[in-house]
Amino acid sequence: MTLHDTVDALMPPPAGQGIAISVRGLSRIYEVPGRHDARVVALDGVSAELPAGSFTAVVGASGSGKSTLLHTMAGLDEPTSGRVSLLGTEITSLTSAKRAQFRSRNVGFVFQDYNLIASMTAAENVSMPSRLARRPLPEGQALTALEAVGLADRAGLKPHQLSGGERQRVAIARVMASQPRIVFADEPTGALDLTSGQVVLEWLSHLAQRGTTVVMVTHDVEAAARADAVVVMDRGRLATWSDCRDAARIAELVHRARIY
Ligand SMILES: Nc1ncnc2c1ncn2[C@@H]1O[C@H](COP(=O)(O)OP(=O)(O)OP(=O)(O)O)[C@@H](O)[C@H]1O
C-alpha cells in the first residue's frame, strides 16, 4: 500500500462536478481607529467561482488583499458587502454560530504558523477538529493520517518537539483526518525549507486531485506554479486569472498587476 493509497482511504469520495466556492461582489472595508475620514478598502467587489476539486493559488503584492479574501471566503471574517457560498450554502447569511458549525464540518485550514495546540500531542492535534465538530474520528484514524504524512513515529510528541516541516505535516494530517470538502491554506510553505515545502504542496495537490477544493494564498511563485489556477490580486481586486505553471511568468503577472 503506497502513502497515496493510505490517504485515499482517508478522503471522502471525489466530489461531483460543480462550483464549490462562489463569491459575489465581495468588499471588505476596514475603518482606521480614531480616524473617521480614513478607511482601507481591502477587498473591492471581488467575484469568482471555484470548481470542486480545483487547486487555486492567490498571489499578489503585499497588502493587495489576499489574506482578507481567504478569511472572508472561509467565513473567518465578515465582508462589508457581497456574499460567499460554500458547497451551495450561503455562509454570509448564517449566524456566526451556524457559520462556525458549517466550517467545522466542511472546511480545513493550513496556516503558516501551523496553528497546533502546544499542550497536545501530534495525534491529539489531528483528532481535535473532529472532536470539536462532535464527530470523533474512528479509532486509529489519527494515526493513519499521521502515517500517511510519514509521522507515525512522532504521534506522541508535542509541537515543540517537532521540526517546522513536521509540524506542517501534522497540520496536513489534521486536515486529511477530518475529511473537509474545502481547504484554505494561508502561506502554508512560508516558514518551511524547500524540501518540506514541496512535501506540503504535494499533499495539497493530492487532496485537490481527490476532489477537495483547495485555495492557497502564497508569496511564493514556485508554490503558486503547482496550482491549477492562479489568481493575481491587486488593490483589493482580482487583476488576472491564469492557468500558468511557470513561476517566472507568474512573477511577471504579479509585477504587471501593480503597474496597471
Ligand atoms: N484588521 C485590519 N484592520 C485594518 N486594516 C486591515 C486589517 N486587515 C488587513 N488590513 C488592510 O487591508 C489591506 C489588505 O490586507 P491583506 O492582509 O489582506 O493583504 P495581503 O495581500 O494578504 O498582504 P500580505 O501579503 O502582506 O500578507 C492592507 O492594506 C491591510 O493593511
From TrEMBL:
The protein's Enzyme Commission number: 3.6.3.-
SUPFAM superfamilies: P-loop containing nucleoside triphosphate hydrolases (SSF52540)
The keyword Hydrolase is annotated on this UniProt entry: yes
Single annotated GO MF: transmembrane transporter activity
Assigned keywords, A-Z: ATP-binding, Hydrolase, Lipoprotein, Nucleotide-binding, Transport
GO CC term, one of those recorded: plasma membrane
Keyword hit for Ion transport: no
Residues of the ABC transporter domain: 21-260
InterPro entries membership: AAA+_ATPase (IPR003593), ABC_transporter-like_ATP-bd (IPR003439), ABC_transporter-like_CS (IPR017871), ABC_transpr_LolD-like (IPR015854), MacB-like_ATP-bd (IPR017911), P-loop_NTPase (IPR027417)
PANTHER family to which the protein is assigned, alphabetical: ABC TRANSPORTER RELATED, IMPORT ATP-BINDING PROTEIN
Protein name (Swiss-Prot/TrEMBL): Lipoprotein-releasing system ATP-binding protein LolD
Species: Actinomyces slackii
